[in-house]
Structures are given as structure tokens and as C-alpha cells.
Amino acid sequence: MNTETETDQEDASFIPPDLAIQAMRDNGYKNTAYALAELIDNSVQANAKSVEIICVETVQQINQRHLKRLAKIAVLDDGDGMTGIVLRKALQFGNGTRLNDRSGIGRFGMGLPNASISQAARVDIWTWQNGPDNALHSYLDVDEIRQRKLRDVPLPRPSSVPEEWRRRAEGLGTSGTLVVWSKLGADRMTWKGARATLRNTGWLLGRIHRRFINDKSLSINLVGGEDLALEKNPVTINDPMYLLPAPTLPAPYNTEPMFEHVRDEPISVEVNGEVFEVRTSYSVAKPTTLELAGSSNRGDTKYGKDAAENIGVSVMRAGRELMLDRSWTIQYDPRDRWWGCEVEFPADLDEIFGVTNNKQAATVFNELSALDWRELAEGEETLPEVIERLREEGDPKGVLLHLSEAIKRNLRALRETIKVQGKGSRRPGKRHGDGDPTEDTNEKWKERDKTNPIPDGDTPPTPEDVEDISEDLKEDGIDEQAAEEIVARVVSGDLKILFIDKTLGSSGELFTVVARGHTTEVVFNRRHPGFEMIFDTVSADDDLDSLSSTELQDRLLKASRAVRVMFAAWARMEREDPPNLSRYERVREAWGKLARDFLEPVSAEDV
User: Fold this and answer.
1) What domains lie within the chain, and their CATH numbers?
2) pLDDT digits (tens, 9 = 90+) for 479-511
3) Gyration radius from the chain CA atoms
4) What whole-number percentage of the chain has pLDDT above 90?
5) Is there a contact between 126 and 141 (Cβ–Cβ < 8 Å)?
6) What is the SS3 assignment for 603?
7) How does DSSP classify residue 459?
8) Which among 426, 468, 204, 464 has a CA at the least distance from the CA of 299?
9) Alpha-carbon distance 97 to 106, whole Å?
């Protein structure tokens, strides 16, 4: 009996191309620079010595304003070029010529198409092995795939490299490849103009591909602007270990390393009877970083701010950085900018490290940063016993646990070195004085303890807590005598709350809360835009008598606007997460009640 219906004749593909293409566009690239890094990887794998990234702008009218906006982005290399068969495979998702080749930085077969459609609706490729006049061309077009006009990668056809790209390029090699993104998505491009795109891409590529740039096996040039005024700049080294001079840093670190090498520690990793070596390397800031800062905080110098952007463990795979993993840092501690750690593993360990196919993360390695092996122990198991059991169970953490323990041990040693460096180097600074909110809030805190005690709220701070509080106070500019008095009050249990201003590792966090036994630190981040706009409206160092009424009014209005904008950001967060609206409402109400109680003036009887 024939039961075939009209529905049975429809496309029954496991993944219908017109539907899958949209999901593939949302493939998790952190930004445009990371997507471009994928294309550079292809060039490196094709033995390119020179790569150009070309960003072309046009003037567009937006809301009656004429603005420069990116129109096309191209990546041109002088690599080996591709045959027609290889070109067609390169435009397929999950295909390619290096799926099982672990000798280089490629392999996954997703990079070129994935990266391209994450940013643009069309990608065109010209590739040649006998001069640009003899190039082959093919393309992908998201709109054509959605409309079911395009189901297969178009057969490559002879097509010389277009004149517009010959004109913009420094030069075309005998062999090479040109990838052009067009139909750029305004909602997908991280930066809308050529200058910002190239600046941020150059900074990232200088870190990701620093090994290739340093050994001069690869040069990357950035070309951007309008056709008649294209600017060209080379990508320079951005080394988070700071063991290579960086041309962008102030003297002397533009010609000599800012950090000094501490040690290399190779770790042997055994997988399926084969032993691989994972190299870990460590560096720490030179004492000259303190000396050059003079009476200033070295974190406020240009080189200190550069180091703040490169905090984390640099995870390297086959000479290429996968990620700068900040999960290993103490996020509220700016001292973490003054050490470097690099972990390099061979591509054979991709599955063990949890490498994603967009080469932006090593998920298993990342998990280990916050994992204490004791949490995995069963009964009275020792670390070697935990490792052995996990290995038998096929858990990759069993292979990497001894690596993570070695990293944590070395980072503790580096932090101690940095603490010793900083002792005695702080400048005399402010004291807690009249108008400081600490005293009133401290009394309200104690009052609240009577009705709503904090879990472990009677636990005294550890010696490490006390040392960290002392360092934080000095970092905040509190003078030595005042800091000693505050620490004494913390230890005695008299002082329950501290407000600290510090430069945290990320500019996305306005404040963080740190438990120090029975004392709580509220640490405000100097790097957050809201800090200067609100908390530095009037500082203790200001000569208020010298400010005009207009200047004072401008400062107050700026702070008032900032507060409103911050609450708008909260409101936006709620609206973007409807399933959790009731939770936000409960938090808002509880926080509002606490704020009301804390803002009530402290009476003489309360003190």
C-alpha cells in the first residue's frame, strides 16, 4: 500500500540548508577580530609570509547624518593558493583538507565559512597558483541559501582578481588567496568603522599570532579607510608574558622586555599510552616597573594599563594563542597584572583540553581553574588516587589535574613575589576622614546583624585576609598610620565594612564584594566609566574653593546623569531576561529595603 503523501515529498534533510545557515551565523565568535583571526590561521596553514587585512569604508546617510561605515573587508595572502577541489571544500561547513592533520593550527574544517558568515552575508574567494590573472573564484551567499537558490558550493570558475583589490593591495604574489566579506551585518560587526576594526583586530592578532610575527615568518598589515586615503600599519607584537619588547609601550619597554622570565616547568601528559609534553612558563614584572613609576602607582602608568588588558593565562596550541584565560586570576586584585603565565600544548591534546572548533577556548582547562581536586575525591582519596580513578573513568580532568595543581602552585609563588615588590613602595595618601560613609554604614551593618546575621559572620579574618586588607588600603592611597588603625579595628571585630577604590582587571565590573572573615570589602573599580563619573565627582584632593559654581554644577549633573544611566542598564538587564523577572523583582525589593534602612541617619543612641 502506498502511504506516500505530499508531505513526504518535502525536503527531509537532517539539517535543511536554508534553516541551518541562520543557526550557523550565530556560532559564538567573540567579536569581528576573532573571526578575522580564523582567516589568518588559514593563511598561516597555507605557508603565507605576508597577509593584508583591508577594510573599505563608504559614506552612508544614517538618520540624516553622513557617517563612515564599513562596506567590505578583505584578507589577502601570498600563500600556496588552492586548486578548485580544495577551494570548494574550504567553503563547506565541517569539510576541508586538514580534518585529521594535527601538524599545524588548522584542522577543524569550520573556520573560513563559519567566521565569514558570522560577520557578513556574502563571502567571495579568489585563489591562484599561477598569477592573479589565473585565479579561480567561488562564493557563499546567505540570502541565496535562505531563498533556496543555492544548495551547493558553486563550482569554482576562472576569474582574475578584481581591479579594485589589485589597486588597494600592496602587491599580489604568484600564488595566494583573497577572501572578501560583503553585505556586512550592522548588527554583527563589533565595530562600524575601519579604524576601530583594524585597531582592535591588530591588538588581538599581535597577541594570537605573536610567535609567527616575532620569528618573522609572518607579517600582517592593516589597510583601511576610504579608497583615496587608505592608511597602512603593521601588526606589532602584543606579548602577555611581556618577555618581548612591544613597540607600543613607552621606553624602555619598547626596546626591552617589561617582565623577567622566572621558570619553565614541563608537565608530562599521558593519553592512551602515549606521553605528550605540556610546557608551562612564568614571568614577573621587573622591579624597574616600580622605580619608573616614582611616587605614582605603577598600575596608573601607560605600561600598567597595558598590562591590565593582558591579565590571564595565555593558552597556546601549536604556536597560536587560543585564549587569554582570566579564570585563573583573582579578578578584584590588580596585582595579577604583574605576572605572566603561558601554557602550551600540542594539537594531539585537543580533546583533553576541550578545544572548541572556533579555536577560542579550551573548556576543560578553563574548568580546572576553579576546581579543587578535593571536591572530586571519594572518601579519603589522595590526589594521585583521584587522578587515577578519573583516568580510568575516561574523564579528561584526570589527565590535567596535576597540570592545574602545578599552575596554581606557581601562581601563588608569583603573587608572593609581587607582594614583596610592592612593600614600601606606596606613596603617602589619603586618610579616612570627615564625610567618609564607612562609619555610618558600619553602625547600620552591626544593627542589621542583630536581626539578620550573616552566615559565618563571627569568623575572624585569616592572617592572609589581614595582609590583603592592608595591601588594599595602601592601594587605595590610605596612609600607613590610618591603615594600621583600620586593620586593628578589623581584627578586633569593630569594623565590619570597608570601601576600597582599586583598578580591577576588567572594565565591565563596577564593583565586587570580597568576604574577609567578619569584615566585608566593597571594592569599586577605577576602570569602570561609572567610577569617575560618580565617585570622583569631588575627591579629597580637590581644592573646592578654586572651583567655580558652574564647574561644581557640571560635576554634580554628570554624576546625576551617570546614576540614571546605570539604573537604565539594570532595567535593560531585566527586560532582556523575562523568565527571571520575578527573581529580579525580589532582589530589587530586598535591596531597596536595605538601602532605605542604611540611608536613614544614624542617631546618637545608635553610635
Assistant:
1) 17-234 (3.30.565.10), 259-422 (no CATH), 438-527+577-599 (no CATH)
2) 777 888 888 889 888 899 888 888 776 667 788
3) 28
4) 41
5) no
6) coil
7) P
8) 426
9) 10
